[in-house]
């Protein structure tokens, strides 16, 4: 993306630096010290170190911005209109099991709206970026959502509840409605990359409930800037606030959303 703003360049630099640290640790994943955060949800020293790297890089460049990250308390900025929303390692379980499908996610929020986004997949060296009104990109290639129109040809992605979460019945009902009508549903364990893949046309749509702001903030903008549609489970909901999101290309969005919402 040749006309990237100063803020996006700062985000890319921070993501690459954190990515280098994570790749080193990924190579020694069997030696990582892991502590349990909750059932089925782990945090490693690699995760914490990556967030520290990102926070320091962003704070040095923009000391007045707020910071919301997965691993620490929110930091209020002297500029109340801007904050970073960061997931230093989306796909931690994949990372800890040696699966090369995880990402660094950084979003910039301005007055309640996501205006810049970076999702970096270090294992595949894929850098997804977007800015409001400037399109979405992967490395140097412009991204567009898929143009498929028949749901039976479409591939969707979601997350599946783990560790005794209470939303398993809802998700199973979702799958019962959606699977018979499509070409498949994938669960690859990284909401950030799921949304990036919708933007890239690799998936035709994505839905999930009970996400955190840092899981979806960057991906939400990527999909929009690649020509896709994004809503919450309620049409007026803000996914960053509710943690519920439906994303798809325009031709299928209304039918897909109706299935997810069981309208």
How would you describe this protein?
- By secondary structure, the protein is α+β, with helices and mostly antiparallel strands.
- It folds into two domains: 6-142, Fructose-1,6-Bisphosphatase, subunit A, domain 1 (Fructose-1,6-Bisphosphatase, Chain A, domain 1, 2-Layer Sandwich); 151-261, 3-Layer(aba) Sandwich (D-Maltodextrin-Binding Protein, domain 2).
- 35% of the residues lie in helices and 26% in strands.
- It has helices spanning 6-26, 45-61, 92-96, 168-178, 191-199, 213-225, 239-242, 250-261, and strands at residues 34-38, 41-44, 66-69, 82-90, 103-110, 113-121, 126-131, 136-138, 141-142, 155-158, 184-186, 205-208, 229-231, 245-248.
- The strands form three sheets. A seven-stranded mixed sheet has the order 3-4-5-6-7-8-9, with helices on both faces. The protein has a five-stranded mixed sheet with strand order 11-10-12-14-13, sandwiched between helices. Strands 1-2 form a two-stranded antiparallel sheet.
- A hairpin with a 4-residue loop joins strand 7 and strand 8 (136-138).
- Helix 1 packs antiparallel against helix 2.
- It is globular.
Write the layout of secondary structure elements.
Elements: H1 6-26, E1 34-38, E2 41-44, H2 45-61, E3 66-69, E4 82-90, H3 92-96, E5 103-110, E6 113-121, E7 126-131, E8 136-138, E9 141-142, E10 155-158, H4 168-178, E11 184-186, H5 191-199, E12 205-208, H6 213-225, E13 229-231, H7 239-242, E14 245-248, H8 250-261
Parallel strand pairs: 3-4, 10-11, 10-12
Antiparallel strand pairs: 1-2, 4-5, 5-6, 6-7, 7-8, 8-9, 12-14, 13-14
